[in-house]
Protein: DUF1330 domain-containing protein
Organism: Nocardioides guangzhouensis
Amino acid sequence: MPRAYWINTFRSVSDSDKLRAYVELAGPAMKESGGRFLSRGKAVAAFEEGTPERTTLIEFSSVEAAVAAYHSDAYQAALAALGDGAVRDIRIVEALD
């Protein structure tokens, strides 16, 4: 079963306190679900319709594991903390190898 990558791009942040609360909960939730952070932070460069806001890349053992992480109680608590504090784009893609 191929690995999967979770790509979380923040399109905009309207409440830095809510973002901070989300980050404190989301990181441990991803790790508990088997995620391994490969990159996170503001984009070094953004092209076309890309945004320089915070982007996170997390590796999972499979697509199923990544989707389960999203639906986990721990991650849902992180989402509740974020609330309307940001607009994001989350994608889960399957690795090629």
Notes: The longest strand covers residues 4-13. Residues 16-32 form the longest helix (17 residues). The beta strands are 4-13, 36-42, 54-60, 86-94.
